[in-house]
Amino acid sequence: MKKLKIKPQKLFNVAITYLIILAVCFVFLFPILWLVLASFSKTGSIYSFEGFFPAELSLDSFKRLFTDTALYNYPRWFLNTLFIALMSSLIGTSLTILTAYVMSRFRFKTRKAMMKMTLILGMFPSFMTMTAVYLMMTQFNLINQQWGLILIYSAGAPMGYLTQKGFFDTIPSSIDEAARIDGASNFKIFVRITLPLAAPMIVYTLLSSFVWPWSDFILPQLLLKNKDLYTVAVGLMSLDDTEFSRFAAGSVFIAVPIVVFYFALSKFLISGLSAGAVKQ
Amino acid sequence: MANLSLKHIYKVYPNGTKAVNDFNMQIDDKEFIVFVGPSGCGKSTMLRMIAGLEEITAGELRIGDVVVNDMEPKDRDIAMVFQNYALYPHMNIYENIAFGLRMRKIPDVKRNKQGGPVLDRAGKPVKVMRRYTKEELDEKVLGAAGVLGITEYLKKKPKEMSGGQRQRVALGRAIVREPKVMLLDEPLSNLDAKLRTQMRSEIVKLHDRLQTTFIYVTHDQVEAMTMGTRIVVMKDGYIQQVDTPKNVYQNPSNKFVAGFIGTPQMNFFEGTLCRTGERVEMRFKGSECPVTASCDILGKAIPRYLDGKTPVWIGLRADDITIGAAGEKERGATIRVKISHTEELGTETLVYGDIDLTRDTFGESPTQVIMKAAGFENFRSGDVVDAVLRLENVHLFDFQTEESILPRIPKYNYLSCTVQEGRLTAAGIELTLPDAMQCPDGAYELLLPTDAVTLGGETEAEVLSSETADGKPLARLNVGGSSLFALIDARAGEKVRLSFDLKRIALRQNGEEVVSPMPLMNSVVGTFALDRVKARPQEGKRGKVNAYSFVIGGQKYRAPMDVAQKMFAALSGRKAFTAQFRYEFTSYDLKISEHGLPAEVEKVLDYGTETFVKCKVCGSDFYVPVTGDVPRSICLEPDFEKIGVTETEREIKIV
Fold it and tell me: Which of A267, B30, B582, B599 is most buried, by the most CB atoms less than 10 A from its CB?
């Protein structure tokens, strides 16, 4: 058998590369690992950890999370968050896709100005408008209402339409023109030609517009006063200091829907669906 | 199955770029028209305007008898094939072809459950619009697929097919709807050379089979020559020439067309022409040897180019230059050429050389010449050979304007004449000059427009030859020994009598016009306005209505509605009220009346049979036919239905 020869220089390079990757992985993964371990802590309090990690592990905190709902109704918060995030994601995606399609395909007078304006407005952090949003929501009587949150999230979503517009720009306009000559109206072109071609982009938009309401803290904290309406983020923050393992378990568990959502939709995320339409 | 009429079509982009300029054309049913030109010449824009994908800035486009300017593409009953196929990638081939049918509804009668027609109270079947049934779709799609040989691919997706197959699908999608007009936008540009040749003949066959109007856009002159029944050569948004492939090749109207059509490109030499008796001598710049030819080749040439001084472009195709000894016929038509290099094409050899023997360049030079020789003949670079020019196929162009000076229909007949005591004498022609054309005695050059010669009159002539050029009959006449061209229908050998439209004649002396022809088009600059006026009873409306008027010299004249609408369309609404227009009227559309445009009479022009007055209208000269005496101040009433309107800033002819 031939002996595998590796040059020392190459070996060194590989070793250095792996070391860097390991270091980066450690930085990224250690907090997650710690949180997962903390969620399995038996005692529940952060003060009872021996050193850095919990001394004893058990599934207790997860059990309590779903069973002990008298004071902290985690399942309720979870469903609240899911409802808000799903609705915002659906409405937000429709709005984003429509905005992007209009900006990509239609030419009208204020198009450039609107594009620039939305781009700049989208750059401002959402909490900057907190006071204004709060006042408006009181006026509309939407404080303590989940639809108030959904409204804000959905309306804010199209600000980030640029990625979607970029995608629509890559669908050749001659396909639209061919469909127009074939007798399709603008709406039919959108539904029958553009949307099927934009499936990967729609999935991406659904996912990305799901994540913001799912993990947002500031707006729900601001608008939801009733404990039964809390989202997970707000609810977890309201936990008592001694309930640390419950906090950790709740934090770990909210990652589940995102993972499920991602795997369910990932098969649509394949690119190259438009291959063969036109000759480039 | 429809004819198209394109009148004064313009495309001007908001930044002022003119993509298409005054495009005028009539396309007959079942024609195969090819728009050809270099990139950026406006050919695709024109096609997209016909398709309805691009708005028409000004002009009128009719498909059949319907003006379709503002019609949606789907209502125009056209189909289009795109350069990049533009198939729907997520649908299979069947769905791609069927899509156009699925989008449409067809008229039918309402049917009851048994399949019988439902009758209304009057006993007539109730009409409804319905979608195609599955069976109908199958039949049509399979029919189209059968014609194009793609039946076996119907289940496949576009990405699984090759370029040629995809283009067939695109053709199938177009023909399945049986459109009135098929539009093809460079459909073969993305195919390789072999496939392109194959598809070329397939498209021609398809045209024969479908018997519908085809409009085909290409930048490839070979496609244009081989496919079209007529070719439209375009450059910079202007039509250069519209004619059959044969005529475009044999009688290019300018240097651009001559150079664009035909491979290898036509050779152009700067030179001069000198006529001495029955021979004409051509001198080429850079070459020592002049060639001579019989004057016959210059049949319709304009005389002022034959003085031996005026530079012209002399064009000869490579086929018309052969290497070898001159025969009896071509005596005197030999030129010496220094060979630079050759290109073997198998059946023939392209020989590149230079008529300037001192030059030694491989690059382009103004004296370069490309010749054709038999295949695999040996030439050494640097050799000097005799090249025989077939001068009967020569093309001559003006040096500045690059227009042909051998037009198919000469615009003018140039004759020398003398005027004595009011009588004009040219070879065989004697005319009494009317008052309006009086000029001092002397020798003049007579410019007689070809279309100002008509049958029936005093002057006798013999028809030497007759032909049809650009759809018009053209006769060459012998009038008292000099030849004359006229747009009259007569057979060779026939004796005819001619009369001349005197107001169109010009007399020149030493290059200066002594007697000018009367302009038949009168124009005046004005604006456009909107008023609210009381409705006229015939308008069938109450109260006030919008009235549009032409404003000429501060006075308003009610504009016909269709003209106003065209002006609005061309200037995108409100701008119509700030822009300036040139309003044009032919002399015969102007009447002297009691109200109308005020005019000051300057001169009465008596042409014998007709009398005109020259008058000033807002600073512009107008010529109006009159009978009897006229006062100094008159009013002209134009026929506004026949008005010509041009926007002056962008020079757009709107009506």
Answer: B599
